[in-house]
Amino acid sequence: MNAQTISMARPRRGALLGMLQNYGVYLAIAVLLLYNLFFTPNFFNIENFRTQFVQVVPVLVVALGMALVIGTEGIDLSVGGVMALAAAVMPLYIGYGLFPVVVIAIVVGAVVGVINGSMVAFIGVQPIVATLSLMVAGRGVALLIAHEQMVSIMDPNILAVGRGSVAGVPYSVIIAVLAVLLVAVLVNRTTFGKQLIAIGGSRRAAELSGLPVKRILLIVYILCAALAAIAGIVGTARLGASVPSTLGNLIELSAITAVVVGGTPLTGGQVKVIGTVAGALLLQFISATLNQHNVPDAYSQITQAVIILFAVYIQRGRLAVR
Amino acid sequence: MSLAIEQGVKPTAADSQARKERIAAALQSYGAAVALVILLIVGSFAFPTFLSFGNFSNILTQSSFPLIVAVGMTFVILTGGIDLSVGSVFALGGVLAAEGSSFGVVGAIAFPLVVCGVIGLLQGLLVAYAKMASFIVTLAGLLAVRGLVLAITAGGATTPLIKNLTFTAIGQNGIFGIHWTVIIAVLAVILGTVALTRTRAGQSIFAIGGSESASTFMGLPVARVKLSVYVVSGLCAGLAGALNAGYSSSGVPTVGVGLELSAISAVVIGGTLLVGGRGSLAGTLAGVLLLSVIQNMINQVGSLNSSVQAVVSGVFLAIVVIIQTVLSRSQRL
Fold first, then answer.
1. Which of A127, A249, B74, B137 has its CA 20 to 30 A from that of A157?
2. Model pTM?
3. CB nearest to B325's CB, from A75, A125, A138
């Protein structure tokens, strides 16, 4: 009751801004879908939507990890490098079957997360530089492992991860849904999630109240890297080839955008999991719309940049409103 | 601690603490220069052609373009910000120089400078006045400006050529075996140093990087200064791109990818704190040269490829920031 009167008393403009911050992404998706309903032929059929959902998986999975990191007021620029690393190690272990390949790729990704997390948590390096160095070194190591070559992947089990489906639902989409559920439960239903958000709210306060801040930060960066590795596996399986030179290039930008558009502030202290899913879908629909209307890549990039800026501009008032 | 000194209880402890702080500060400021000297000595013993004038002139020429970019980056980082768009702006500068060269040397220089300056201005407005995080604004800038470059060059399919011989001469020739681009880069360092250390605006940059709220309370024009550093960075990246286009006789739309990383690395390795408030262009100069010498040595080995370069610079950056963070922590205590 009390909370309601406060929100009623708030000036109209603030309320509108708050609405935009929280639900803008859903509104944007609705507008975009309506536009496509009228102006894009063949947009509304099952096949197209299946394609859209399959294509969004890597960005979405990376964005989930990114949301956790951003929740702690951090950032992880190394996710593309991790995807490249995961792709690079996959052909090496392909003879051992699907399970070992997946495990090893995730472990390799997690190692990058350990390095990122240790630098941020224990040494106190700013997340942006710590992960910037891994972004470059990660892809460099990936290219060294792969001898700068792309390798075709023939193993039917691995290919199935990217291309197969059960009852019409692609495996990769199932993986993404599982990742969403995992992160959603982690954030909303566990102590760990509460602690993570507390760190983002105020690291100092979290330390003073006795939370294991360093350990939580370390785990968050490991989770983010592991999710990026999973995205790398799915991406590689879909391509049917390990391409460490380009896989995941600039994905950090799309992932950060998806997180921010979805209502998670860059200043940390909040994680919106469903918002992040919506943010990733919005980006996917935008690029699909531009694509289907034959807008060149160049303009599609510029459009994306404008959307990022607009989203961040809207979210920037969050601290004041909160 | 100051109380202890006044009472004369533990002067030795205070002394040793002060000495430790001085050493830490010196290491931070001159670490890159020391590492550079060591590398030069190692290189001269390891590779016979390393110390030749030709090789050195080559290192300097290769360094001049990233150095100009890093000068602008230093301004931004000193205020506590970051500019990730420089690689794309570099490419744009080159393409625009080629387009502008139809109107002579003036066109080849003025056209990229004006446009890149405006891009810096737009980013600066968003950071300084709309109070948005600099890395996200410039990350969007990275994307948008690269899109602009692709739009101008038909999706990167065309490479506009430089049509003015005087401008290619600026990029390719020099005096006494030193390229004009090197001289321009050194001038940029000198001018920048004077601006930072001898002018009111320069001092404001350090103050804002030290503490933005304190600077606001002191009545410094915080927003205007922050705006101006992004303009400087845009101008520097555009100039470097234009000169690079002169050097290679064309505005290649794909150049400059990852340039922001090497520029940031050089600035940080040069002892400028990423949180802002402390650093110098002399350090940046040492940082750029250090990275170029490392690259040159990797090339001298010959059997190593460009991914080794990526690994080395990534690891190097990580080590330097770790050392910096540890050092600045010991200074704070």
1. A249
2. 0.83
3. A125
